[in-house]
Amino acid sequence: MRSRADSGSSTEASGPTPGEPSRAAPDRHQAFELGGRIWGSRLIVGSGGFRSLDAMERAVAASGAEIVTVALRRVDPAADGSALEVIDRLGVFALPNTAGCYTARDAVRTAQLAREAFETDWIKLEVIGDDRTLFPDAVELVDAAVRLVEDGFTVLPYTNDDPILARRLEEAGCAAVMPLGSPIGSGMGIRNPYNIQIIVEGAAVPVILDAGIGTASDAARAMELGCDGVLLSSSVARAKDPERMALAMRGAVDAGYAARRAGRIPRKLHAEASTPDEGLPELG
Amino acid sequence: MIVALNGRHAELPDGATVADAVREAGADGESRGVAVAVDGEVVRRMEWAETKLKSEQTVEVVRAVQGG
Q1: Which residues of A are catalytic?
Q2: How high is the pLDDT of residue B27?
Q3: Contacts of A85 (CB under 8 A, 6+ apart)
Q4: Which of A47, A184, A185 lies at the smallest CB-CB distance from B66?
Q5: ipTM of the complex
Q6: Cα–chain-centroid distance for residue B37?
Q7: In a designed cystine with B35, which of A54, A81, A92, A116 is the match (CB 3.0 to 4.6 A)?
């Protein structure tokens, strides 16, 4: 088994930033490479679903994320405030997505619009099959990925938890693969951890668990399975206290990553005493 | 001249450009995070002022919103 988790050779992880809780000391090896850039946080958050821009701002700050996804929609003159202003103020990277696209053609056009709007060739590629499951349409997804890579995009595809599809996306030149844990917004966690494990084993690009996270233990689990990062949105945005949940997710990603690097003990059916029997006094 | 601007009919003067449509849509033409497609094709920001629209074209003016 490869050990991508140990490849974090960067020492660029800086000390805690002001306002960061001192107990959440980041793992020094936590930095990772994605799309040719070094990132200090393995947590990517979505900006959608928050009750207000203010709630989003506080949660993103608490999460420590450096990458925040945004969507493109028709200009609404009545809209109050701008998501991009908040993201710029936080100093994080706005990663546009193609949410709402059902065909490769629409996704490619949306990506091109995003490139124009955000002056970035990074795109979180989503091509959805239907609105009940929001599962990716594998055929359209690969088609879109091929076309966008050809067009010079750094493509981060939201994909099914299918190891073969993940391989196809990697072969197409995607900068990462982002398998779902369970349906978007479902909070069902990781329904098929074995497939995630197989995807991790086979991938030479970063694997980012995208969608389905419900609570902190799901995020930790993803990292323990060997994922390089976690992308989540609803679990924070729709929590009772988004800011606090963002902090929990940050801790969970750090903890799961540290546990993966530390190497867990094997599961056994029977007990194995941690206290030696030797030197046990005779008391009767 | 009538164009379909963000899903509704908009009356623009003959010879109107993409930049005019952006203003009509309610977007500040200078602000980062705005992009335009005419009949599905992206029009680069630097070309907004020179690109004339034709009647019955479909213009989409989009900007960043919150999204996962």
Answers
A1: 124
A2: 83
A3: none
A4: A47
A5: 0.90
A6: 7
A7: A116
